Structures are given as structure tokens and as C-alpha cells.
Amino acid sequence: MKGMGCDKQKVIRALTSCNNQQRQEIAKVYKVQYGSDLNSDLKKELSGDFENLVLALMTPPAQYDAQQLKKAFSGIGTKENILIEILTTRSNAQINELKHTYKQLFGKELEKELMSETSGDFQKVLVSLCDARSLYKAGTQKFGTDEGTFNSILASQNFNQLRLIFDEYKKTAGHTIEEAIQKSLAVILETLI
């Protein structure tokens, strides 16, 4: 950065020849070497769609997704296409990181935002995507079971919502919730014996 414009071709080459984790490392090295925040400097030097694109490239994925979801909830009407794109294409780990990041950035639970900003079957499916992945993470994906997560989801949803969650759980985990409970129970019983 020179203060009087920057070499956009070098910016493009530098940022598109590496992954997001490497871009985060570049930002850290830049901060140490120049004592300045790379994103702030890029903002000063760039404008328009190019600025937006470069700043998006410099944003960690979970943070970017959280920001996009917040934008989707803002203003008049919810931008459903953004919700669909993000929540249906992310892995279990990515959804869980997104939920954590969303809470950190905005102080709100993503599921509660979905409940307040959407309705009907659309709402049920989106919340189910988040809840089913939480159940999977709390259950058979790891050794031991997080009973608190299971209890929270099972006690707070109606039967129709639970049916959707269980259907999504089966798609996510490759087995039914009943099978997951039986596996967890078998482990507990084996431990007791």
C-alpha cells in the first residue's frame, strides 16, 4: 500500500493464490511488518465491488457466513435465498462454527433469529438443519453423549418439529435418532457392567 493507490494486480495475485487460512496468516504478518491492519488499509485503497470482493476474501468463512445471515435478516423482508444457500451447503462442523460465531458477533442464537425471521415449513426446515446437526455433534459423532443438548432440543420442540429434526438427523448421521440413542445407551450399560 502506497497511500496513493495500490497495485490491484498484485492484490489479486496475492489473495487468489492461497486459501482463507493462508490469507489470515498474511494479515497477521502484514500487521507485524507494517503495524497496520491489512483490511483497514485495503478499505482505504479500494472501492466498489472490488473492495467488497477483496474484503470478503479476507474474512474467515464462519464470520462471513454470519455476516451474510445477519444481512439476510436486516431490512424489510428476509432474503431467503441467502439462508438457503448457507444453511443447506455447510457441513456439520461449519454449521456449528457458524452458530458459535453468530452468537459471538451479534449476541443472539442463530436458531432464535431463524424462528423470529421466518415462518411455516420454511422455518421448520431451517431450524431443523441447525438442530439436527447439533444432535449429531452431541451424540454419535463423538465419544460419549452430550445429554444436555439432547434434552434441550427434545424438550423445546413440538412433535412436528421433532419429526423434521429426526429426518434431517438421519440424512446427516446416516442412521436414525433411535439407533443413536440405542448406541449411546449400550455404551453406558457396558461402562456400568
TrEMBL record:
This is Annexin. It comes from Ditylenchus dipsaci. GO terms for molecular function: calcium ion binding; calcium-dependent phospholipid binding; phosphatidylserine binding. Gene3D superfamilies: Annexin. The lineage of its organism: Eukaryota, Metazoa, Ecdysozoa, Nematoda, Chromadorea. GO terms for cellular component: cytoplasm; nucleus; plasma membrane; vesicle membrane. Belongs to the annexin family. The keyword Calcium applies. It comes from the Eukaryota. Keywords: Annexin, Calcium, Calcium/phospholipid-binding, Repeat. Signal peptide: none annotated. SMART domains: ANX. A pair of annexin repeats may form one binding site for calcium and phospholipid. InterPro entries: Annexin (IPR001464), Annexin_repeat (IPR018502), Annexin_repeat_CS (IPR018252), Annexin_sf (IPR037104). The keyword Calcium applies.
